[in-house]
Design a protein that fits this description.
Layout (H helix, E strand, L loop, with lengths): L1 H14 L4 H30 L4 H44 L1 H7 L4 H12 L2 H23 L2 H30 L4 H26 L6 H17 L7 H16 L1 H13 L4 H30 L3
Length: 305
Amino acid sequence: MTGSVVGLIGFVLTSLTENIYIIYVTYGLIAGTSQSLIYTGVLVSVGYYFDKGRSIATGMVVNGCGVAMLALPPIMQQCVSSFGIHGTFRLIGAAFFQCAVFGALMRPNNVEMNRKMENKTKNTKELYDNQCVRLGKSVRNSLSTLGSVEFFLFCLSTFCWNVSFNISYLYFPKYFKTNGVSKLDVSYLISATGIGNICGRYLIGLAASDRKIDSRLLFFGQFSLIGIFTLFLPFLKSFTIQFVYMTAFGLYTGGVWILQTVILVELISLSNLASGFGIVMFCGGFGQLAVPLLAGNVLYQTESY
């Protein structure tokens, strides 16, 4: 709910300025923070609520992103044509504010409510002492768990993934335009990733729910496949083949968001999910921060997308 309010403020402020340095703050920092708050809050909540079928539940939640990726590029293009970029930012801010409604509906589950009721019945001093002891143990256990090599490698992979994924999304439109694809067709190509995302998130959710299938192997396998496909992108000149590639890109990248929660529970346990997920998202965000600097430098040196 906090993220929805912050998002509304960020996008409205962005719509009121044309100064790129101010937009760095309003769009990049304020609106970006709101997305982190909403995304992290939702996925952590799903991880707590669903013990059985956690991957399927997460898949259903993140499928909303796939639907948005399918539907929004042409809609946003039309909004910009009809209302201008400033009006479009206000519409996006209004859409973000709707998340407050859904956040209000995400009530604490029975386990959490029962714990709160038990705490209220205990003596205040005894409760305070016990909580201090539990907090100290919890912090030590969390630091020990989060400091494992496996967790570090997972954070590193998330950083690398966000660098490559966001470079792709940042430069896909320009890349296709330089290869003679029209603006409308570019929006269709971006929408194709939504088709793949919807299918991929649903299928990966089902696959990850099977205990015989290693979720970490799925995680690694998807990266490998899309990396190999992307190596051949400069040779794909036909619009039809480019559309197939973008669909595959969505298919093999969409399931990553589901597997993050599942793998984290396996690596650091459910009790450390919130703190662990926050650290992973921080690494991902740092990867996104590196995107413009890295990609811009490569583009400047090679003068080629």
